[in-house]
Amino acid sequence: MRLTVFFAFFFCTTFLHLHAQTFGNVCKDSTLASFNQCYGTPFQPICGCDGITYRNECEALAKGVLLWGQGPCEALDFDVRPNPLVDIGYLDIITKQTSDVQVWIFDMFARNKYYFRYPSVYEQTIFPANLDAREFGNGLFFVVLETNGFYKVKRILVNQLD
């Protein structure tokens, strides 16, 4: 009798736990996380229920995120492609609301290598901008974007083959 009650209890609690993870208001499930790196997937940022911006749905799923909304969590997000950059690449910018976006690129010694202001980047639309790195030289650079007082920084590598 005790063994039957134990198995019934174990089965019910396990079922309820799985049910809550799948159908409840659960944000992340670490058992679903994987080491899938989603290489080559497009830049289509989403805001996870955990308040983190993910590159796309593939990356969110690989981290075990179950719920998300379209667009970045913050005021803006961006991607530089390709990275490493050889000569000419693209800067993909997305904002939560239509706003001006300023872009700076600094080398490792904080020397300004690039500046441009993009007026009226439309909300929730990926704005592709050309990025010419032929004058930068080789090395590690920091890309800084600003909109409405919010800053986001990412690193890029420039490796020009001579």
Q: What does this protein structure show overall?
A:
This protein is an alpha+beta fold. It is built from two helices and ten strands, in the order H-E-E-H-E-E-E-E-E-E-E-E. The protein has helices at 2-23, 57-62, and strands spanning 46-48, 53-54, 68-70, 76-81, 88-95, 99-107, 112-121, 127-132, 139-147, 150-158. The strands form three sheets. A four-stranded antiparallel beta sheet has the order 7-6-9-10, with no helix packed on it. Strands 2-1-3 form a three-stranded antiparallel beta sheet. The chain has a three-stranded antiparallel beta sheet with strand order 4-5-8, with no helix packed on it. A hairpin with a 2-residue loop joins strand 9 (139-147) and strand 10. Mean pLDDT is 85; it is low at 3-23.
CATH class of the largest domain: Mainly Beta
Please tell me the total number of domains.
2
- Average pLDDT confidence is 85
Distance between the termini: 79 Å
Total strands: the figure is: 10
Strand order of the largest sheet: 7-6-9-10
List keywords for this structure.
10 strands, 2 domains, Wheat Germ Agglutinin (Isolectin 2), domain 1, 3-stranded antiparallel sheet, 4-stranded antiparallel sheet, disordered N terminus, alpha+beta, 162 residues, Immunoglobulin-like
